[in-house]
Amino acid sequence: MEIKWIEDFVALAQYQSFSRAAEVRNVTQSGFSRRIQALEQWVGADLIDRSSYPPTLTPAGRLFREAADDILNRLFDTRAIIRTEQRMPGIGLQIAAGHTIALSFLPAWLNALTAQFRDVRARVIPTNVHDSILMLVNGNCELMFAYHHPDLPLHLDPTRYEYLTVGIDTFMPVCKPNQKSGPSLRLPGTVSRPLPLISYTETSYFGRCLALLLRRAKTQPALRPHYESDMAEVLKKMVLEGEGIAWLPKSSITNELKNGELVAAGGKEWNLEVELRVYRDASNRNEFIETLWRYLRSST
């Protein structure tokens, strides 16, 4: 049994909709349903009455809901206490960010921050989007960096969680170059020779970005799934080894594009622009955080 199954169940009990709960939990509806079924198998009873609309809790589900709320509250409270004890002394920032952002954007951003606030120390926790949101909501970080697209919003209460746009990135297809420095693989490919696709897991944020881009494409590309991971850095390594085509954030491959190690595998119609945002909990009235946020607002 996994904690995320319990969190899924609580979200379903709250929203009484599989589609809405799956959206809030940043997972596909089919994946969400499988996790609810896995939880029911672990419990040994049906927790959801699927014959009614909207779906409601069974008697076993109502009993489990009480325990689920208590379990999650205790776990997150304990985690908050432990993480608070692990915080750095003095003026420190706990930052949650996606792995790609932590590697490609934050080093330069932190250098600029240090030049402005010399005494500040930062701890960056690379994680996925879902866990970053949980860290922010549970008070386990002061700042959260995440990508944003209007069709793939993060589900955060805008009255409580403020954000600033600190950059624009381009999600683009790339591959190894051929001997003439052109793309060795070119979109859209052909049915007889589909392009080997190095892709993301469907529940990851970049996986959802790719799914959105392909749904919008005027011409459906011929792609053959070859390798899958939820980390862009893993996909980047596979592309550099000539294993296929992958969509990567431009910020993570700036040097490779400049040096000719990678080239665009298609025109701009295959790109997707995404915002890079920094979020904070507006209820956190820490004096340093307030000063930092005013500085960030004035400099963006």
From TrEMBL:
<dbReference type="InterPro" id="IPR005119">
    <property type="entry name" value="LysR_subst-bd"/>
</dbReference>
<dbReference type="GO" id="GO:0003700">
    <property type="term" value="F:DNA-binding transcription factor activity"/>
</dbReference>
<keyword id="KW-0238">DNA-binding</keyword>
<comment type="similarity">
    <text>Belongs to the LysR transcriptional regulatory family.</text>
</comment>
<protein>
    <submittedName>
        <fullName>Chromosome initiation inhibitor</fullName>
    </submittedName>
</protein>
<keyword id="KW-0804">Transcription</keyword>
<dbReference type="InterPro" id="IPR036390">
    <property type="entry name" value="WH_DNA-bd_sf"/>
</dbReference>
<keyword id="KW-0805">Transcription regulation</keyword>
<feature type="domain" description="HTH lysR-type">
    <location>
        <begin position="1"/>
        <end position="58"/>
    </location>
</feature>
<dbReference type="GO" id="GO:0000976">
    <property type="term" value="F:transcription cis-regulatory region binding"/>
</dbReference>
<dbReference type="Pfam" id="PF03466">
    <property type="entry name" value="LysR_substrate"/>
</dbReference>
<dbReference type="Pfam" id="PF00126">
    <property type="entry name" value="HTH_1"/>
</dbReference>
<dbReference type="InterPro" id="IPR036388">
    <property type="entry name" value="WH-like_DNA-bd_sf"/>
</dbReference>
<dbReference type="InterPro" id="IPR000847">
    <property type="entry name" value="LysR_HTH_N"/>
</dbReference>
